[in-house]
């Protein structure tokens, strides 16, 4: 089953959006595999956002993501990578459709509430830098028989 890495950013944690965001993915039918509240070091932030190293906003991005705890998660389910991105909405909340997480809870690109992997390769990479195997739970949910 496909897995993705999702993270409530420091603004979402401070604004008490963890429960709301977890509830959306639960209700959709996805299965939580791992989760933790944690602080991100500058080193981890630079690795996670390595693809943006040359962008003018990189410094700001690292400062923001290390400014307070994040809620890091691994979710599993059919097509979860693409569907989670759709549920998050466009990167800039001003372009994100109502009904999406960024569309409902964000106003500016610098504080857009949630991160989600954008491809199978980035999902694998990001899960690997945030979680070790022992932190991920392998289990069967009976309700899956009513989802799949
Ligand atoms: P996404 O988070 O939708 O995958 P991304 O990978 O292009 O978007 O960028 C990573 C984060 O960097 C994004 O969530 C917010 C920030 N960011 C992107 N473009 C930005 C910009 N033009 N100015 C400031 N921050 C930006
Ligand atoms: Mg991205």
From TrEMBL:
The protein's required cofactors: Mg(2+)
Cited Pfam families: NDK
UniProt xrefs under InterPro entries: NDK-like_dom (IPR034907), NDK-like_dom_sf (IPR036850), Nucleoside_diP_kinase (IPR001564), Nucleoside_diP_kinase_AS (IPR023005)
PROSITE patterns recorded: NDPK, NDPK_LIKE
PTM sites of type Phosphoserine: 122
Enzyme class label: transferase
GO biological process: CTP biosynthetic process; GTP biosynthetic process; UTP biosynthetic process
MF annotations from Gene Ontology: ATP binding; metal ion binding; nucleoside diphosphate kinase activity
Binding residues for ATP: 9, 57, 85, 91, 102, 112
Stretches assigned to the Nucleoside diphosphate kinase-like domain: 1-138
Keyword Lipid metabolism: no
UniProt keyword annotation of Cytoplasm present: yes
EC number: 2.7.4.6
Ranges in a coiled coil: none
Chemical reaction(s) catalysed: a 2'-deoxyribonucleoside 5'-diphosphate + ATP = a 2'-deoxyribonucleoside 5'-triphosphate + ADP; dZDP + ATP = dZTP + ADP; a ribonucleoside 5'-diphosphate + ATP = a ribonucleoside 5'-triphosphate + ADP
GO cellular component: cytoplasm
Active site, renumbered: 115
Keywords attached to this entry: ATP-binding, Cytoplasm, Kinase, Magnesium, Metal-binding, Nucleotide metabolism, Nucleotide-binding, Phosphoprotein, Transferase
Modified residues (Phosphothreonine): 91
Compartment(s) where it occurs, according to its Swiss-Prot or TrEMBL record: Cytoplasm
Region forming the signal peptide: none
Lineage top rank: taxon: Bacteria
PANTHER family per UniProt: NUCLEOSIDE DIPHOSPHATE KINASE
Assigned protein family: Belongs to the NDK family.
Subunit structure: Homotetramer.
Protein name as catalogued: Nucleoside diphosphate kinase
Organism this protein belongs to: Neobacillus citreus
């Amino acid at each position: 089953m496909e897995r993705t890495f999702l993270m409530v950013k420091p603004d979402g944690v401070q604004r008490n959006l963890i429960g709301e965001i977890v509830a959306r993915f639960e209700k959709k039918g996805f299965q939580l595999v791992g989760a933790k509240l944690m602080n991100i070091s500058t080193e981890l932030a630079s690795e996670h956002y390595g693809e943006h190293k040359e962008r003018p906003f990189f410094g700001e991005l690292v400062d923001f993501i290390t400014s307070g705890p994040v809620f890091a998660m691994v979710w599993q389910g059919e097509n979860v990578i693409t569907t989670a991105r759709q549920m998050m909405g466009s990167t800039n909340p001003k372009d994100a459709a109502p009904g999406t997480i960024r569309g409902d809870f964000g106003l500016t690109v610098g504080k857009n509430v949630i991160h989600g992997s954008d491809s199978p390769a980035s999902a694998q990479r990001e899960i690997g830098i945030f979680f070790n195997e022992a932190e991920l739970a392998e289990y069967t949910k009976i309700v899956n028989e009513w989802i799949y």
